[in-house]
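Lay summary. Proteins are chains of building blocks that fold into shapes, and those shapes determine what they do. In this project we predict the shape from the chain. Here is one chain we studied, written as its sequence of building blocks.
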Amino acid sequence: MTANPILLQKKYVRVVDLFAKKEGIALSDALDFFYNSMVYQLMRDGVSDMHCMSDDYLVGDLCVEYQEARQ
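And here is the predicted shape, written in a compact code that computers can read:
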């Protein structure tokens, strides 16, 4: 299933903003990490309807990916 591109962009904004706040990083750093993440790829490609998951769920996955990347 493909999402409406405008709604998907708004979802990206909410997820990146929440991710930046949760990890205590700059929005620019959060955006850079997000666009290079597996979470973004899955959302963009509509895999498993990831774009339908809650913002909190997606941020949780993104935080796990971020912590793994920092190790």
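What the prediction tells us: Residues 5-70 form one domain.
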